[in-house]
Amino acid sequence: MMTIPLFEAFVAIGGRTNRQISPLDYVNFVTQNSKEVKKGTLFVALTGQRVDGHDFVKEAETLGAIAAVVERDVNDVSIPQFIVPSTVKAMGDLAKIWRGRLAIPVVAVTGSVGKTSTKELIAHVLEAKYRTHKSRKNFNNQLGVPIELMNLDRSHQCSVVEFGMRNFNQINYLSWIARPNIAVITNIGMSHIETLGSRENIAKAKAEILEGMDREGTLILNRDDDFYEYIRSLSHCNVISFGENSRADIRLSDIQLNEKANPSFKLNGLPVVMTNCVGKHHAYNAAIAYAVAIQLGIRQEDIASRLATFSTPDRRGSFSYAKNGALLLDSTYNAAPDSIKASLYTISELTKRGKRTIAVIGEMLELGTHSEEAHRHIGKIISEMIEVELLVTVGEYARFIGEEAHKPDWKHFENATAAARYLVDEIRSDDIVLLQGSNGVSLDIVVNALEKGAL
Predict the structure, then answer these.
(1) Is the pTM of this model over 0.85?
(2) How far apart are the first and last CA of the chain?
(3) Bridge-partner residues for 43, per DSSP?
(4) Is there a contact between 164 and 115 (Cβ–Cβ < 8 Å)?
(5) What is the C-alpha to C-alpha distance for residues 86 and 112, in angstroms, rounded to an integer?
(6) Which region holds residue 225: left if phi is over 0, alpha if psi is between -120 and 50, else beta?
(7) Which of 236, 250, 249, 216 is nearest to 105 (CA)?
(8) H or E, element range at 373
(9) Using CA atoms, how far apart are residues 147 and 314, in angstroms rounded to an integer?
(10) Of 108, 326, 426, 431, which sits 20 to 30 A from 26 (CA to CA)?
């Protein structure tokens, strides 16, 4: 448990109070969820599209809340209410002082592709030595990161959090709250190019992670990325590079995929085998985790052992089987040009004589004016892959993939349900099927239908 004086919390968020604050009162927990309230909790009344936290202030008081942070005074409540213009902003202010009272390393992960898998892998490796806190899935924005940081307590020895963004001035806000000791930028791709306009602007937005770091911090950066030199030039702290580049500090070499596409490779000469992961890109994630772990004093042999036992999070490149036995590579959680290319490379390595390879590719969202170009680029890659025998595209812009791929066996569907209806009857027991698209396309409907053998 960790405590802070209630008055200190009030000063941190500003605003005004409707009651006198006792100097003897302490906060030992902060939450926006009334169901989590216990004695000594500071309850933050967030206003959402479906639920208004102000409706639960009385319940929070009954359960033991010591005070509430609100945007308007709530009647019939006897605990102090701290009235502020924005409870979301107040949550960030509280998280900043909460994190500041813990002298533990915080690792922050951002990038265009692979943030969540890399965050999970880093945390898995650090658990070899430390009691590690990690942010939950989707808790990576201006509200989610503060919520996760306030789950830290004095039993934690390190924390790994993910930073997402859609525009400028979002990652810097998170960085000033989390004050990371180690920052990771996995790569610079095309995700969110619709709002930022160019990869150069994406690189600039990702580099905002540096703004909350001091000079004793460490930035871990992809030496193989086009924007390595640019981001390095912005850094005021130590930089550790990773990649296949001969000048990388953490050198990836001898990358191979076995018959199941499990990667094996070397990290600065250390042999690593990841038997529960699929695809070459996991070698890059492993290089990042290795760099973080070395910084935090974990032995090489312990790093290799933890890497070997890591399993990919669901729907992020994991294997499952259709009802009839066909092999499914499920990457339906999200998609970007770089991640789809990695998945295509993976299934090309899986192909064996006598097996048919099917690529089910959904539309990539949030690419703006670059949408047609990006989808045609994926189509061009597929056109050069003899392994892909049947191409199925789903969603408006995905049609450009099919047009560019020039595959004689190409089917296009406007939605996932229609694609599922077709594929349930089409796939054979010895097929290899890649399924990938943006989350909004809902290709998980297809995966579920194939696994059940019916829509």
Answers:
(1) yes
(2) 48
(3) 31, 68
(4) yes
(5) 29
(6) beta
(7) 216
(8) helix 371-383
(9) 23
(10) 108
For the chain, 455 residues long, give each residue's pLDDT as a single digit of tens.
789 999 999 999 999 999 999 999 999 999 999 999 999 999 999 998 889 999 999 999 999 999 999 999 999 999 999 999 999 999 999 999 999 999 999 999 999 989 999 999 999 999 999 999 999 988 999 999 999 999 999 999 999 999 999 999 999 999 999 999 999 999 999 887 888 999 999 999 999 999 999 999 999 999 999 999 999 999 999 999 999 999 999 999 999 998 888 999 999 999 999 999 989 999 999 999 999 999 999 999 999 999 999 998 777 888 889 999 999 999 998 888 989 998 998 988 887 656 899 999 999 998 988 999 999 999 999 999 988 999 999 999 999 999 999 999 999 999 999 999 999 999 999 999 999 999 999 999 999 999 999 98
Judge contact between 364 and 379, C-beta under 8 A: no
CA atoms within 13 A on the CB side of 394: 29
Outline where DSSP puts E strands in 357-417.
Answer: 357-362, 388-394, 410-413
- Helix and strand counts by DSSP (H, E) for the chain: 16, 22
How crowded is the C-beta side of 217, counted as CA atoms within 13 Å? 25
**One-letter amino acid of 232:** R
Residue 253, Cα to own-chain centre: how many angstroms? 26
DSSP one-letter code for 99: H
Give the tokens for residue 258.
């076995």
Phi and psi angles of residue 57, each rounded to the nearest 5 degrees, phi first: -65, -45
